[in-house]
């Protein structure tokens, strides 16, 4: 092989032959190699290099070393600046064959070109390059017997996660903005390169990457260029590479290298070599190791039902275009032979036509760039100008528009849709936003090659900027995490169906949910009304909606005590009305263009499964923001006419009308309310009855399809439109706490019975009372956090059993926690205790059964030489089926994690459960059985579907928690279009999630302490010794089985993970404020010997249980913890206190109490100490017995501002006796003396031996409770 820059004939050799080359010194930027993932180490193996003059670091003329050396591409020699002009060919400015000049090329540029174009001829070296490039695999297809499996290797998520960390750690703050660590706000652009096999796509990407990489400190991956002399396709599937020039910017470029067209059924070299070396047992293959343990997902291609559809050519020409055309901002079509330019335009049209009708509501069409590779030299500079070349090529094709059969076919297609096409450019603009042509010279012109590469790069940047601006105008610009969700949705969609278009609007419901404020609630209700109408009319919908909106405003104003008439109240809410209407018109109301095709069939489609459709009225389904330049589309994706968005209903035309309707109806309702209040009715009761009987009774029963029970939402309360829904009723509706309080009957202070659903007032029949338990507003939260640990989580259950034993064995552990957070198998335990109400003994039994089934070995795994093959093919050590069956048996197949029909027996549960999981891209996701307000930006997504259809079943949530990479396959949740796995290493100890969820669940503080009452964190065992050789786990967002970028054995990984969980706990404790009592945070993580119990060793469970029992049976920590938990059952509720100046009395709950001292001298607060447990329940009796045993008749409550002057309030023997005999806890009101209004109090339960433990909600200031009640924000925005 001739080295870079060599020619068939060369001029006479220089006068002095160069000396033998010295050892190669790495003074130039290293050539990037694909190695171990994203930023790669440099491979200095000399076997990869081809003998080249670049290795000679001396001048070929004077044989001296110089800093500035130049390569002559024609002479293939290196000269210093002084010797350059001494060469006769240089002085005479001779040209080589083909008109090639002797160009003076900087040695650094020559080195880059040498790395791009000089490829090794040794197959072993070449094979290693392909193995190193495995980590760049993004998605592709593999054969599994008679099936085709779509593989997503998680490359996109890996690239974005790694660069997000690098942006945070970057020191180039002046050049790049440092990213917010909590959420990735970047907007990446996808640039796809397509073309025939051998056209030079990989070479072009490598050229773009390497030229941009020259001034970067990190190494960036680049494709493997085709091996010289080989005519077989190089790589399979689609690979993804990052542009170094924009890697740390707000808009990074991603290059997608697509498998070549017309490659036939020959297996690409990369697939062949990679499969040969992809040995599961080979721990030396770091790239293969990393790829196997990356978050990958598999989906069977349901439509691959014939040999033709399973062919490689079908996949490359039909599946890949649908994905790349849909999401790319720029499509680059690479051509090797410029003389066949006409066929290139044909391929561009055919390739785009295969994908045009496979998506709807696409915000913008991609831009197209044609790259003509290896163009012949031309002395005219205009021949290399992008604008000139584009114009001349389009002019040269002007005559072919009526002669080319392919062009004629697609011209006819668009003429049938009332669009005139008379030039090739107009035809191209039907499929692309713009078209440019860039010529690239042969490798003999390095300077020109560099210039043209920069021209191409500038065109890419310009087009991506146009695309991003267009999407931003339409409010469809996707951030990095949002694009990942859309991609996963598309992967799932096109794996199931090829003939159904991917709808961006439908995907947005799952990936970019509507904000859950008042405006978002109005919008969601409007969308629900559209879905329930066979022929919806937007004006009629918003006319009906205005009454419900006005009534909701009236109810909210009463709840928040906003005084005034409609003129003063309505302006507070008008912004929400405008936002809802604007969003509805822009993103949810379809184009009204329609054609009566009664006498004609529907237009044919581009796709391969074209079938004539029925006749009738043809309507466009695209919304304004997604209408783009495709024209009018049917629901199945077919374009039936050209034209822009058409609708008589718009924000500009209907804004004033909608505002007026809401205003006048609000005014009418306020007048009715005033009449009822003047007649003696309470304002809140009158407003609630007006809202229910005069508005909702008619609004929800006015003929919706499916009746009122078809109107559901998991993100907004359809009763008041203001608060997030929290409480599921037997009818399936979910109401917020405010509406439960409004329409329920209080059985006690925190127990409400619902006799009917307010949305179903006029429906026949009512259900039996449905009991709802509310968390007292004056009480704090109690949190249980459970680490991941496989079968070792039996340790946690045994610890909980020992705690229950200290509580006399009859108080369920669920009574002592408001929030349970679990990771991995800890999530399974949290689900069993919190959603199924299992006792600890029942949970142990179910857990053992699940583990026994889940960790049963695959058939053939222990057969020598076969085990690794079985695991490699299945990509999992254990079979999913036994695990799925055991989880369905334990959690049932019909119980949803949130929403759905409610079963009797589970209605009295009041435990919130949160599960730490992650998507296939490594993004953290929390699955929960509750709803809550969003507080700030978190490092994870709180998953809450809009309706029951996309909600998780309880067993599915447990399955996601147990999907440990390489042990089990991910959970494919088809309804949410995502794959879910066990949580990332960040959340193996989920304490940070627990603390964040604790903050999010806390409502407006009524003087309650900001910290939880108690946080109990249970580990899964800490090994006695952690090898010093294994450093701390890198905090990489992706879950990989690597430590500091080196492969380790799984046992070592588990040991280090256990230590990492301890460090996470230490970090949490160290981050607490100084006012937070450390005694409220308890961590139990027993020490176990190394190798005593493996992550998946079922046989060691009984031994573990016995060991934990022996270790903690009489442990003082367990006894202390039991007393702490009992103390958190009690809380102090300050009465609504006012001071009567003349009588000097306190008014408490409508009763007068004499002041115990002059009101001017001291501050007094009256209130009661209450118990969380409802009276008349067996749990109250057991608490009484505990107080009798541990208090020994001397239990007191201690409240102190100053430790030297405490106030004692006795729990008298009669109170304890009432608890035991009548299951009631009732203490008389108490008066607390304070030296100042803002004094901070401590309140404790005092047991035998002066053992003190804080009761719920303390320490705190009682004054802040009164202030908190007054500071509730009327009509506040909520976000879910």
UniProtKB/TrEMBL annotation:
GO terms for biological process: arachidonate metabolic process; glycerolipid metabolic process; lipid catabolic process. Keywords: Hydrolase, Lipid degradation, Lipid metabolism, Metal-binding, Zinc, Zinc-finger. It comes from the Eukaryota. InterPro entries: Acyl_Trfase/lysoPLipase, P-loop_NTPase, PNPLA_dom, Znf_RING, Znf_RING_CS. Residues 17-32 have a biased composition (Pro residues). Residues 784-995 form the PNPLA domain. Residues 717-761 form the RING-type domain. Pfam families: Patatin. Gene3D superfamilies: Cytosolic phospholipase A2 catalytic domain. GO terms for molecular function: calcium-independent phospholipase A2 activity; zinc ion binding. This is FabD/lysophospholipase-like protein.
